[in-house]
Design goal:
The chain is an alpha/beta fold and about 575 residues long. Among the domains are: about 10-325, Up-down Bundle (ABC transporter transmembrane region fold), CATH 1.20.1560; about 420-500, 3-Layer(aba) Sandwich (Rossmann fold), CATH 3.40.50. It contains 20 helices and 14 strands. It has helices spanning about 10-20, 25-50, 60-110, 115-120, 120-165, 165-175, 175-215, 215-220, 225-250, 250-275, 280-325, 385-390, 415-420, 435-440, 450-455, 460-465, 485-495, 515-530, 565-570, 570-580, and strands at about 55, 60, 345-350, 360-370, 375, 400-405, 405-410, 420-425, 435, 475, 500-505, 530-535, 550-555, 555-560. It has a six-stranded mixed β-sheet with strand order 8-11-12-5-13-14, with helices on both faces. The chain has a four-stranded antiparallel β-sheet with strand order 4-3-6-7, with helices on one face. The longest helix has about 50 residues, at about 60-110. The protein is elongated, with a radius of gyration of 35 Å. The model is unreliable at about 1-5 (pLDDT under 50).
């Protein structure tokens, strides 16, 4: 989180921009709030008149009293109806605004460079889009409901009090601002604690997300106690920060109530003396005391709103920090749409680094002819996966060019470039849905026969048939009960369904048994026929038939050639290959 600015006005302006889309609903809500408040303010006048109809024991003007009660009933009904309409509109505006902010935040996430996703805790991003935006909703709802009516009530009661007895009204006006000063002082002190609280919540969500998503690994390595300890530390940190934020913010209410009670007592004493001197009636004093209470009450409510808004603004800062992130650079206006790619790839003097002080790939050169099968091998961290990321434009090179079919990849639309590649990665991804949905990934116009044929080529059809509902079986998050190998077979079926002009197989069979792998390798051989293919593998026995094998180390190609030539050279590849069969 960036350092908080002295003024939160830029954040308020951004929130107001979203609220402004619903200004008609807000205007109607404001009118309803005015009706509700004015009618509620007129009730004490009627109560005072009712009191004055009771002159003494046995001296009650029942005709006038019933007339007052009838008028009060009508006013209460209209006030309640206007209040209900106001609350309904406030709820509508609040949740529409929250929907818009959340939608924009999620859409922005789709347009961000992969570097932001890679460098940010996933749980913290989830916390911003879910929990922080929920907190904005709480602040807006409280603000709309109590701020409107509170402001109208303050000015309305002031007018009524001035009409009844101006001198006592001025006394109330002089003393009441103390509550505003107290609440604003406390609000400034609590804001920094609410910012820390939001950050701690994001940190906790990130930790939970990480551990729950990797529960099997955690249990397998007996890391449960350490995980509990890590969670306890983060939870304890959140407890302390939340306690401070809640403690300081909770000082607002009793402080303002003290000022309010002080005002009420002064009005009662001063008004009592006026009644004794005959300057006002008992009914008027009753009305005035009611107004004094109504006048001070909104200050107390507004102080609560201010406290809630401080929390909401702190959360809004985190959300808008996400929304204001730099987007992935857009495609050039004259960007080329790659269709029917031949698969010619030329890489010239390419360099790349995830951080400026740690170069990874330097002066990388490669010339791949259409239809060639290129295998990439090397030790962990040598840049194999990074090379694939650069091919797909998940990242752009720092220097140099990647030229595909004679066009620089930087001047090819990302969508058309990525649609020209079929990818099977070591890490599988399955969404919640049926097996069929996970194979087609939402593509329309795919027949059941095509899905089954793709699954057969991927050797997935036999185990899918054994599932409870076959292709209509609903899978849980990330594949649910499927084994890692079965999940990988479904991912392979996706590629078999949409046969692209170029292929990337990054440890595509790493989780599959040897017998099934041999059959899939046969299917891949057929699939790769005539298509430019990049194969990343650690099991070197699977790449012996590649047209060219690139041996990478520390971001450089140190050897290249066919399998037999590299073995005969007796270099790094030969040592790597022999170490797997020694």
């Amino acid at each position: 989180m960036s350092k908080t600015k002295n003024s939160n006005w830029p954040l308020y302006k951004k929130i107001l921009k979203y609220i402004g889309r619903y200004k008609i609903l807000l205007l109607i809500s404001l009118i309803m709030a005015a009706i509700n408040s004015v009618l509620a303010l007129y009730l004490p006048v009627l109560i005072g008149k009712g009191v004055d109809t009771i002159i003494g024991k046995g001296e009650v003007d029942f005709t006038a009293l019933f007339k007052v009660i009838k008028t009060m009933g009508i006013i209460i009904f209209i006030s309640a109806l206007s209040g209900w309409i106001m609350n309904a509109l406030n709820n509508r505006v609040t949740f529409d605004v929250v929907r818009d902010i959340r939608k924009e935040a999620f859409n922005k996430l789709q347009r961000m460079p992969l570097s932001y996703i890679d460098s940010s805790p996933k749980g913290d991003i989830v916390s911003r889009i879910i929990a922080d935006i929920d907190q904005i909703a709480d602040g807006l709802l409280l603000g709309f409901t109590q701020l409107f009516t509170g402001i109208i009530t303050i000015f309305g009661t002031l007018l009524f009090m001035l009409f009844i007895e101006a001198r006592i009204a001025l006394l109330v006006v002089v003393v009441t601002p103390l509550s505003i000063l107290v609440s604003s002082f406390i609000a400034r002190k609590t804001h920094k604690h609410f910012i820390k609280q939001s950050e701690a919540k994001g940190k906790q969500t990130a930790l939970i997300n990480e551990y729950v998503g990797n529960e099997k690994v955690l249990i397998a390595f007996g890391h449960e106690d350490e995980a509990v300890e890590d969670f306890d530390n983060v939870n304890e940190e959140l407890k302390h920060i939340s306690f401070k934020a809640t403690f300081y913010s909770s000082l607002t209410n009793p402080s303002t109530r003290f000022v309010n009670n002080l005002v009420y007592a002064l009005v009662a004493l001063t008004g009592g003396r006026c009644c004794v001197k005959g300057l006002m009636t008992v009914g008027q004093l009753t009305s005035f005391l009611s107004y004094a209470n109504q006048y001070t009450k909104p200050f107390n409510e507004i102080s609560s709103v201010v406290t809630e808004l401080q929390n909401s603004v702190a959360c809004a800062g985190r959300v808008f920090e996400l929304i204001d992130q730099d987007e992935q650079s857009p495609d050039n206006k004259d960007a080329y749409v790659l269709e029917g790619a031949r698969g010619s790839i030329l890489i010239k003097n390419m360099s790349f680094a995830y951080s400026e002080d740690k170069p990874l790939i330097e002066n990388f050169n490669l010339d791949v002819k259409p239809g060639q099968r290129v295998a990439i091998v090397g030790p962990t961290g040598c840049g194999k996966t990074t090379f694939i990321n650069l091919l797909m434009r998940f990242y752009d090179p720092v220097d140099g060019d990647i030229i595909i079919d004679g066009k620089p990849s930087s001047n090819i639309t990302r969508k058309s470039l990525r649609l020209s590649f079929g990818m099977v990665l070591q890490d599988t991804w399955l969404r919640r849905g049926t097996v069929r949905d996970n194979i087609t990934l939402g593509r329309e116009g795919i027949t059941d026969e095509e899905v089954i044929e793709a699954a057969k080529k991927a050797r997935a059809h036999s185990f899918i048939k054994r599932l409870e509902n076959g292709y209509d079986t609903v899978l849980g998050e990330d594949g649910g009960i499927l084994s890692q190998g079965q999940k990988q077979l479904i991912c392979i079926a996706r590629v078999m369904l949409r046969i692209p002009p170029m292929l990337i197989l990054d440890e595509a069979t790493s989780s599959i048994d040897t017998r099934t792998e041999i059959k899939i390798q046969e299917a891949f051989q057929t699939l790769m026929e005539g298509r430019t293919s990049f194969i990343v593998a650690h099991r070197l026995s699977t790449i012996r038939s590649a047209d060219v094998i690139l041996v990478m180390k520390d971001g450089h190609i140190i050897e290249s050639g066919k399998h037999e030539k590299l073995l005969a050279d007796g270099g790094f590849y030969a040592n790597l290959y022999n170490s797997q069969f020694s």
